[in-house]
């Protein structure tokens, strides 16, 4: 059965991610009822959650980014006691514990190469998350931005699966691409 907060997320295409508690008023002014909290510490996280709740928002906390929390399952217990509605982590065991506690559980994964992609299935099986957040979400736009900001040539690598991917990376500003996919070596 899907977690009830997933329906709220479907209603809002962009979920605000709060990286600095000083920007909380901007987050609560946004449409939608969910905020991802990517900041805080163990002394102030409960008050931050309360502020979001007072504004009618659900608080999904990135446990790995709350200063002072251990990388143990008990981090999920602590955030649940503080009133968090959901938990995000790169650690499947923390995500699994959050789900056991009834929180929305989000496994955050960095898909930086084919090895990370192949490990994803076992991480999902271990953590049994409600959702998986895949990063980077827009690598081609990042290449475009970096190619104009840096004087150093860029190589695009990882997860390139087709000629279209290669061409998109080159159009975005990469000088070349690197790939372990032999089918791309003759393009």
Structure write-up:
By secondary structure, this protein is of the alpha/beta class. It has helices at residues 4-11, 24-29, 45-54, 74-81, 92-100, 114-127, 139-149, 163-172, and strands spanning 17-18, 34-37, 58-62, 86-89, 104-110, 131-135, 155-157, 176-178. Strands 1-2-3-4-5-6 form a 6-stranded parallel β-sheet, with helices on both faces. The chain has a two-stranded parallel ribbon with strand order 7-8. The longest helix has 14 residues, at 114-127. The chain is globular, with a radius of gyration of 19 Å. 29% of the residues are buried.
Q: Rounded to an integer, what's the Rg over CA atoms?
A: 19 Å
Q: Characterize the overall form.
A: globular
Span between N and C termini? 45 Å
Order of helices and strands: HEHEHEHEHEHEHEHE
β-strand percent reads 15-25%
Largest sheet: 6 strands, parallel
- Mean pLDDT comes to 90
Structural class per helix/strand content? Answer: alpha/beta
**DSSP E strands, number:** 8
**Helix segment tally:** 8
Fraction of residues in helix = 40-55%
Uncertain regions spanning at least 5 consecutive residues: none
Walk across the major sheet and give the strand order. Answer: 1-2-3-4-5-6
Which tags fit this structure?
single chain, 187 residues, alpha/beta, 6-stranded parallel β-sheet, two-stranded parallel sheet, 8 helices, 8 strands, 18% strand, globular
């Amino acid at each position: 059965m899907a977690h009830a907060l997933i329906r709220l997320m479907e209603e809002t295409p962009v979920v605000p991610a709060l990286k600095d508690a000083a920007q909380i008023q901007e987050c609560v002014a946004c449409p939608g009822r969910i905020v991802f909290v990517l900041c805080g510490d163990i002394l102030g996280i409960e008050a931050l959650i309360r502020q979001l709740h007072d504004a009618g928002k659900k608080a999904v906390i990135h446990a790995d980014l709350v200063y002072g929390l251990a990388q143990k399952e008990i981090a999920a217990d602590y955030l649940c006691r503080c009133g968090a509605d959901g938990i995000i982590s790169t650690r499947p065991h923390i995500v699994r514990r959050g789900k056991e506690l009834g929180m929305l559980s989000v496994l955050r994964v960095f898909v930086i190469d084919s090895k990370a992609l192949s490990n994803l299935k076992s991480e999902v099986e271990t953590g049994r998350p409600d959702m998986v957040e895949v990063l980077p979400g827009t690598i081609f736009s990042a290449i475009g931005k970096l190619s104009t900001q840096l004087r150093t040539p860029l190589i695009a690598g990882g997860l390139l699966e087709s000629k279209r991917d290669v061409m998109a990376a080159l159009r975005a500003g990469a000088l070349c691409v690197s790939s372990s996919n032999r089918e791309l070596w003759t393009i």
